[in-house]
Amino acid sequence: MKKIICGKVACNEAIARDIYKMQIQSPELGQAKPGQFVNLYLADKSMLLPRPISICDIEEGCMTLVYKVVGKGTKALSAYKEQDDIRVSTPLGNGYFIEGEELEHHTCDYRGKKVALVGGGIGVPPMVLLAKRLQEQGAEVTAVVGFPEEAFLIQELKGFCQSVHIATDRGTIGFHGNVLELIQEKEILAQEYFACGPKVMLRALSQWCQQQQLSCQVSLEERMGCGYGACVGCTCKIKVVTEAGVEIQQKGVCKHGPVFFGEEVAWDA
Ligand SMILES: Cc1cc2nc3c(=O)[nH]c(=O)nc-3n(C[C@H](O)[C@H](O)[C@H](O)COP(=O)(O)OP(=O)(O)OC[C@H]3O[C@@H](n4cnc5c(N)ncnc54)[C@H](O)[C@@H]3O)c2cc1C
Ligand code: FES
């Protein structure tokens, strides 16, 4: 159940250029599903809106977040020091469909199943907790991760994946190109794909999966306002089957997502 807690920063350090790892401790932290996120409330009251960040890992009383400094909020976050207090609303969103609910068109039995986790840039952090949970469920996990030039979280992924493939836009590390080109070139085939990253990447992967008739779950990191369903700042277009046929409806990513099945998203609408 979601709640706002007051946590203590246990560490906040740079792990690559403009990329920080923050660990937050609180006895009130419960569990979270991979793909769920938190809203961070900054101490500076001029920044009222919370900043959404995906849960990278969570253990008893300790949560790991990995974020990129892109603007005022994440810059302020990078200045937090060990022992600082921070308010966190957690866990938010639906998370990937891998446990608990059995959906009509989808089974959550991953024993012996080949899965591929596809992360792009700041979409890589949620892949760590996802890899951990899928490995615990007995899946054969492969990660395919793409970055502009500098890679991060590779060791963490290697701890839970049978193989980790890296692509960089400039060819500085691993494959020279994007994650979909790498999947196609190396024929990284899986029964199900899970992705998080820039929308163009999610759209290309989702359309490729549909052509191959493979299941694909995508986490949409739309820009958010309130972060809890009140402002309609984060809507995206989702296909919904109704009695009248397939309708395109606006859905708030913070409330109904951030994870959707690729074929549900009206990418071109
Ligand atoms: C569900 C969800 C999970 C997220 N998980 C992570 C994560 O694990 N790590 C991480 O680094 N970031 C993540 N983000 C993005 C993060 O929330 C934004 O980068 C952050 O809110 C920017 O705040 P700011 O005040 O620094 O930037 P602002 O000053 O608000 O914006 C600076 C620049 O960043 C762009 N920007 C802001 N928000 C987003 C966004 N959501 N997507 C793309 N561009 C954006 C703006 O358009 C602008 O160009 C996530 C976003 C969502 C919605
Ligand atoms: S961020 Fe306000 S409705 Fe989603």
TrEMBL record:
Binding site for FAD: R51, P52, I53, S54, G73, T74
Coiled-coil residue spans: none
Keyword annotations of the record: 2Fe-2S, Electron transport, FAD, Flavoprotein, Iron, Iron-sulfur, Metal-binding, Transport
Keyword Metal-binding in annotation: yes
Cofactor note: Binds 1 FAD per subunit. Binds 1 [2Fe-2S] cluster per subunit.
Gene Ontology MF terms in the entry: 2 iron, 2 sulfur cluster binding; flavin adenine dinucleotide binding; metal ion binding; oxidoreductase activity
Keyword Transport belongs to the record: yes
Cofactor: FAD; [2Fe-2S] cluster
Binding site residues for [2Fe-2S] cluster: C226, C231, C234, C254
InterPro entries reported in the protein's UniProt record: Cyt_c3_hydrogenase_gsu, Dihydroorotate_DH_ele_sf, Dihydroorotate_DH_Fe-S-bd, FAD-bd_FR_type, FNR_nucleotide-bd, PyrK_electron_transfer, Riboflavin_synthase-like_b-brl
GO terms, biological process: pyrimidine nucleotide biosynthetic process
Lineage top rank: taxon: Bacteria
Residues covered by the FAD-binding FR-type domain: 2-98
Family, as annotated: Belongs to the PyrK family.
Name of the protein: Dihydroorotate dehydrogenase electron transfer subunit
Species this protein is from: Aminipila butyrica
